[in-house]
């Protein structure tokens, strides 16, 4: 299933629904409804009531494309100098030109497809007694809200899924990011309670992430909650570190618990970056990232980066448009590469950072070593990296471990995720310089609101630039 085809189907259905609403309103006002066949707008080929077990895999597939692919990852990873945009739209974004039209597809997909589907499953689960379905949908909704608000700031939520049920549904108000975060935590808490419930009436099925294992979904909920608690560190200070740390023990216990989504073995079902490189290929690996991997003799290098014809790994200096530089490697751009929503490695880095910040160096050191080992295991497909770890990581002591070392290794582990962009804004690490030919001396810190949202929703905030900070990203 290709993303573009899926997205077009969803957007077409929404536009059709909008036209139907206008027609219905005109008929009501003219009082000419006595002759209307109530089944006139029903499509005999499209079922009105789709079961949750069929909505869930479609929701997960679509969300995996957006979490792991074009715009959310490509654009932010260009800004973070993992990639370099060398041609066309990617080059423009690389020199900090991101227009409202550039983000239309991502915005529309998140709302018209993924969050709408999650909302539908949550409602159906409540009506039908599918408690576990509801829990999974709440975790997915929280994840989608987290991605959306971290990229855009204030976003529609409380009025976003009413559709034609009310006027507000057609032009929803934007909830403040502070309230969106409250909703994220509430959804995750409700999901945890759902997974602990003994009142489920419908067996969970159709789950392509955890194969219907609610124990793993519960761990994912705790792990995601730790991430979003830490994201609020600039607002909440030490409380954010303590809150995140308290959640770690109930989260992932190994890389086998990772919340990820694997793709197929054909071009039509391939990973988002495989399709992107096959169809457009206007990014290369950045020298900022490649040179660091080479300098460290990092075992992840051949998995993150594709060697050129001579077996060399070459990065493009940010903004230089070096089309001869290396392509992304199979870890992110292989045909069946997985989208990682949340990993055990990330959770251990959260633990290492928070333990360090609350003054527990011994615990921080243990978590740091586990985090790097988990990342290497995940990226290198379980290869034996003991020698490199012993020489570079396991030699650290409580006296030599620093916060910068923790953040550096987390940066190396978070390649290919949008969460890396949140980590950079929160910590200021690494200190990146504007690229060659940059249109601004300031690096971007958010996305502009989608052009279609600005055009059709009068409640959309105005005057926002990509240099503005979201609520939690305070100086």
Give the SSE map.
Blueprint: H1 3-30, H2 52-68, H3 74-79, E1 83-85, H4 88-94, H5 104-128, H6 131-152, E2 155-156, H7 167-170, E3 174-175, H8 177-195, H9 214-231, H10 233-236, H11 238-248, E4 259-261, H12 272-279, E5 283-285, H13 287-295, H14 301-304, H15 330-333, E6 339-342, H16 344-357, H17 361-379, H18 386-392, H19 403-413, H20 419-427, H21 451-456
Antiparallel strand pairs: 1-5, 2-3, 4-6
Helix pairs in contact: 1-5, 2-5, 2-6, 5-6, 6-8, 6-9, 8-9, 9-11, 9-16, 11-16, 16-17, 16-19, 17-19
Please provide a written account of the structure.
The chain is mainly alpha-helical. The chain has a domain at 53-264 and 339-456: Serine Threonine Protein Phosphatase 5, Tetratricopeptide repeat (Alpha Horseshoe). The chain has 21 helices and six strands. Strands 1-5 form a two-stranded antiparallel ribbon. α6 (131-152) packs antiparallel against α8, α16 (344-357) packs antiparallel against α17 (361-379) and α17 packs parallel to α19 (403-413). The longest helix is centred in the N-terminal third of the chain and has 28 residues, at 3-30.
């Amino acid at each position: 299933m290709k993303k573009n085809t899926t997205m077009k189907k969803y957007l077409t259905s929404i536009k059709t629904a909008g036209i139907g609403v206008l027609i219905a309103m005109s008929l009501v006002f003219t009082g000419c409804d006595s002759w209307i066949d109530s089944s006139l707008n029903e499509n005999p080929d499209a079922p009105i009531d789709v079961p949750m077990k069929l909505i869930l895999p479609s929701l997960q597939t679509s969300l995996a494309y957006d979490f792991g692919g074009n715009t959310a990852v490509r654009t932010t990873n260009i800004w973070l100098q993992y990639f370099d945009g060398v041609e066309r739209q990617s080059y423009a974004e690389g020199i900090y030109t991101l227009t409202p039209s550039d983000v239309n597809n991502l915005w529309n997909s998140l709302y018209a497809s993924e969050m709408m589907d999650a909302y539908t499953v949550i409602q159906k689960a409540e009506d039908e007694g599918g408690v576990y379905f509801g829990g999974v949908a709440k975790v997915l909704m929280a994840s989608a809200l987290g991605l959306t608000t971290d990229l855009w700031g204030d976003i529609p939520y409380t009025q976003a899924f009413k559709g034609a049920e009310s006027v507000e549904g057609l032009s929803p108000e934007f909830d403040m990011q502070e309230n969106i975060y409250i909703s994220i935590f509430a959804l995750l808490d409700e999901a945890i309670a759902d997974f602990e419930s003994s009142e489920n009436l419908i067996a969970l099925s159709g789950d392509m992430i955890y194969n219907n294992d609610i124990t793993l979904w519960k761990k994912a909920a705790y792990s995601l909650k730790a991430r979003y608690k830490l994201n609020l560190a600039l607002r909440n200070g030490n409380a954010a570190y303590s809150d995140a740390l308290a959640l770690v023990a109930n989260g992932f216990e190994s890389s086998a618990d990772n919340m990820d989504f694997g793709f197929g073995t054909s071009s039509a079902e391939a990973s988002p970056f495989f399709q992107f490189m096959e169809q457009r290929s206007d990014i290369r690996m950045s020298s900022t990232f490649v040179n660091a991997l080479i300098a460290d003799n990092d075992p992840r290098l051949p998995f993150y980066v594709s060697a050129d014809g001579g077996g060399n790994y070459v990065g493009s200096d940010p903004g230089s448009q070096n089309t001869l530089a290396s392509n992304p490697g199979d870890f992110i751009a292989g045909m069946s590469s997985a989208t990682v929503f949340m990993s055990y490695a990330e959770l251990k880095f959260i633990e290492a950072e928070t333990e360090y910040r609350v003054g527990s160096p011994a615990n921080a050191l243990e978590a740091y070593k586990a985090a790097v080992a988990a990342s290497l295991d995940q990226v290198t497909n379980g290869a034996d990296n003991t020698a490199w770890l012993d020489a570079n990581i396991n030699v650290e002591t409580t006296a030599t471990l620093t916060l910068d070392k923790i953040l550096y290794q987390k940066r190396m582990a978070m390649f290919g995720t949008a969460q890396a962009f949140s980590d950079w804004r929160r910590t200021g690490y690494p200190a990146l310089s504007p690229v060659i030919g940059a249109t601004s001396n300031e690096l971007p810190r958010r996305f502009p609101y989608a052009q279609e949202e600005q055009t059709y929703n009068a409640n959309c905030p105005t005057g926002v630039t990509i240099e503005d900070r979201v609520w939690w990203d305070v100086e």
